[in-house]
Design goal:
Blueprint: E1 2-11, E2 16-18, H1 19-23, H2 30-37, E3 41-43, H3 51-66, E4 75-79, H4 91-97, E5 104-108, H5 114-128, E6 133-140, H6 152-155, H7 165-173, H8 175-178, E7 184-193, E8 199-207, E9 215-216, H9 230-234, E10 241-242, H10 244-265, E11 275-278, H11 283-293, H12 304-307, H13 314-324, E12 333-340, E13 344-351
Parallel strand pairs: 4-5, 4-6, 11-12
Antiparallel strand pairs: 1-7, 2-3, 6-7, 8-13, 9-10, 12-13
Length: 356
């Protein structure tokens, strides 16, 4: 008995912030951002909208697509690095808002690798017989990180510029990472399937804690007493910190290696792949992954230009778009791969049910 994807859904905030919009509040330009990241725009949530809200909307859409009633879901798995609040996680909130009942709900904190880990957990639960229907959702509201101050009023169209000099300086200081991220959510419904050789046919998951500092938020944690204070805020310890060069090197090495490893375990090669759903971190990283695998952009598509990096939501959003575009057909071999903070990475191999 295996597990298959029977429905997908996406939820993104209606507000779009373009690169030109960001150029009005920091020292940057559309060309500077596009040439370094591939991002042209991102969706931004309004104040009061959290990851749980976007996740719930994506789950409702995925259930509708799968023609599955909420009461038929056995397990909910949520992945996010931007929960609504420090504690608890968002899974219970999503469960309640979607009317799923008192089912088991998991929160995963593998950051950009969270959705990949969630798919593997769902597959294990379904194969073991502990569940017959599992929903996996990745959701992020990164806008809460952004140190834009009163410049948010400019981005939301509440007033025109120029930006306050202090706010402009803070936004410019953060531009190396702030321009990358967007808000959004994506979900998939998985169910058991008796078809031989279909569904998830292999996975490779890896963690290397020696690279935990590649991407981190060094403050606002319980090594500090108190866990958050004015000194940490003044030192920008609540901002994300990235080692961009080493992150690039690790990502373009680890993701292709995981793809090849999972293929080898199934006695398959890259030539057998129909599609690679890769984490949308940066177009330069995606280009590096393609070169390492020896494939073109058609096999490893990108949508980062329209969404930015939505962390745990990139895989399900891209999956939903590829399904909607008719790129995923019966018999296709699809590989999911991601690399994220922790460091966590891996690959999962999926055979679409049905004959070619």
């Amino acid at each position: 008995m295996g597990s298959v994807i029977i429905g997908t859904g996406v939820a993104v905030p209606p507000r779009i912030v373009t690169n030109d919009d960001l150029a009005a509040i920091m020292d940057t330009s559309d060309e500077w951002i596009r040439s370094r990241t591939g991002v042209r725009q991102r969706h931004i949530a309004d104040p009061g909208v959290g990851a749980s809200d976007l996740a719930a909307d994506a789950v409702v859409e995925a259930l509708r697509d799968a023609a599955v009633a909420p009461e038929d879901v056995d397990v909910l798995i949520t992945a996010t690095m931007t929960p609504d609040q420090f504690a608890p996680g968002i899974s219970g909130m999503v469960q309640d808002r979607c009317g799923l009942g008192h089912i088991a709900s998991f929160d995963l904190r593998q950051q950009c690798g969270g959705y990949l880990y969630g798919l593997d957990l769902a597959d294990a639960l379904l194969r073991s017989g502990k569940a017959r229907c599992v929903v996996v959702v990745g959701a992020e509201v990164h806008s809460g990180y952004m140190p834009y101050g009163a410049s948010w009023e400019i981005l939301r169209g509440q007033r025109s510029g120029p930006a306050d000099p202090v706010d402009h300086a803070a936004a410019t200081e953060a531009r190396g990472w702030a321009v990358l991220f967007g808000d959004g959510a994506g979900a998939a419904v998985l169910a058991t399937d008796d078809g031989p050789g279909t569904g998830f046919v292999g996975s490779v998951l890896r963690t290397d804690g020696s690279h935990a500092d590649l991407i981190e938020v060094p403050g606002v944690g319980f090594r500090h007493q108190p866990y958050v204070d004015a000194a940490q805020l003044e030192a920008r310890a609540h901002w994300p910190s990235m080692n961009g060069m080493e992150l690039f090197r690790q990502a373009v090495t680890c993701m292709p290696a995981a793809v090849r490893e999972v293929l080898a375990g199934a006695d398959l090669t890259v030539d057998d792949l129909s599609l690679v759903i890769a984490h949308q971190a940066n177009d330069r990283i995606l280009d590096g992954v393609r070169k390492q695998l020896g494939v073109d952009a058609d096999l490893v598509p990108s949508n980062i230009a329209r969404y930015g990096n939505t962390t745990a939501a990139t895989l399900p959003i891209l999956l939903h778009e590829q399904r909607a575009a008719g790129r995923i057909e019966p018999g296709d071999l699809v590989c999911f791969t991601a690399f994220g903070a922790g460091a966590h990475w891996g690959a999962s191999l999926y055979r679409v049910p049905g004959a070619r």
